[in-house]
Design goal:
globular; 3-stranded antiparallel beta sheet; alpha/beta; Aspartate Aminotransferase, domain 2; 7-stranded mixed beta sheet; Aspartate Aminotransferase, domain 1; about 400 residues
């Protein structure tokens, strides 16, 4: 008998449910549910940039395909923003509008990887980047980093230790999902120098650039423009995750190869989402400031309740719960949290070395609901030492 067709081994190796093993059981839970496992916002987008605000008679082609690079007027606005805010000397050909930053990073990875190539990933990391590398036949190499290094020299040493003959790129996220850390300029300069000396691409995930509460956001592409592909997100920057619009910027030759991946997968980012994106680029500064203030307050409050340092950026807290685990391990704790109505993401989704950690998002729910969820989580975890 003929055997059934096989599945790609690289895809079989990818994780499935990365954010919560209990997401499929939400309907059976009685009582309030607090989904802190998801990285999103409770805020609606800017008035004037919501789907109900867009009219087809005011935007010809609203429901049609558009240029695979992106709507020209949006690309022009992105170029202006990147020059003014990020210090990137880019042109229109340097930019690709994508179906969210996830698609942008996927296009970048697909453009640079051959089967068996390795990508170094600073860990703990955004959970989807590992699977993206695997989806394109690459090998993700995790570099325990954010809780392990304390200087630029240590940062370089941690990365250099894992470079091999198959290494082609280094993935960097700042502000960090899930740690809330902001990588200092000096560290980024040293990592850029290392990439240059080793002939590596740099993948710069900057989707939380607008939510820095302490410290300075530095765009890695301003330090190594010839080898950096940077991803940005309207989802995070303006509360428009469902619109699926982000953008990728980098060397023209690299972006042209990435554009091929985009054309053959999502073709173009949603046209209506791009129209809304243009509006928030022009008029969204006030929305962002309000969001930043609310997020900072919610993060500080959650950190204080859990006995953690205040986050420097992003919308997450990442905590080691190894001393709170019983013989059931992390699965038992996640089950207990679920019974309390609180969903948190398992740390292993952000790195193999973090199996006894958990991640929570403090912006997915309104502040009072977040506070209640964190109170329940703190009660479950028990007293924790306050940070100095």
């Amino acid at each position: 008998m003929p055997r059934p067709p096989a599945f790609a081994s690289s895809v079989c190796a990818m994780p499935g449910a990365v954010y919560s093993p209990f997401a499929d059981r939400l309907r059976e839970h009685e009582g309030a549910i607090f989904p802190l496992h998801v990285g999103d916002t409770w805020l609606e987008p800017l008035v004037g940039a919501r789907m109900q605000d867009l009219r087809a008679d005011e935007h010809p082609g609203l429901h049609a395909y558009c240029d695979t690079r992106g709507k020209p007027e949006l690309v022009d606005a992105i170029v202006e923003k990147l020059r003014a805010k990020n210090g990137l000397a880019c042109e229109r050909e340097s930019v690709l509008v994508t179906a969210g930053a996830t698609a942008g990073l996927s296009c970048a990875v697909g453009a640079m990887l051959s089967a068996g190539d390795e990508v170094l990933i600073l860990a703990p990391f955004w959970p989807l980047i590992r699977g993206i590398v695997q989806a394109f036949g690459g090998r993700p190499v995790e570099v325990p980093f954010f809780d392990r290094v304390a200087s630029a020299e240590e940062a370089v040493a941690a990365v250099r230790e894992r470079i091999s003959a198959r290494t082609v790129a280094l993935y960097v996220s700042t502000p960090s999902n899930p740690t809330g850390r902001v990588i200092p300029r000096g560290w980024l300069e040293s990592l850029a120098d290392l990439a240059r000396s080793e002939g590596l691409w740099l993948l710069s995930d900057e989707v939380y650039e607008d939510f820095v509460y302490r410290g300075e956001h530095v765009s890695l592409g301003s330090l190594a423009p010839e080898r950096t592909l940077s991803a940005y997100s309207f989802s995070k920057a303006y509360g428009m995750a469902g619109n699926r619009v982000g953008y990728l910027v980098g060397p023209v030759a690299a972006v042209e190869q990435a554009r091929k991946i985009g054309t053959h997968t999502f073709y173009n980012a949603p046209t209506a989402g791009q129209v809304a994106a243009l509006r928030v680029l022009r008029d969204g500064a006030g929305w962002q400031q309000r969001a930043r203030d609310l997020y900072c307050s919610a993060g500080d409050r959650a950190a204080r309740e859990l006995g953690l340092p205040r986050p420097a950026g992003s919308s997450f807290l990442f905590l080691d719960v190894s001393d709170r685990l019983d013989r059931r391990g992390i699965d038992g704790l996640l089950e207990d949290c679920f019974e309390d109505g609180v969903l948190v993401a398992p740390g292993a989704s952000s790195g193999q070395a973090y199996a006894s950690w958990i991640r929570l998002c403090y912006t997915v729910l309104p502040p009072d609901e977040t506070a209640e969820a964190v109170r329940r989580l703190a009660a479950r975890l028990g007293p924790r030492a306050q940070p100095a």
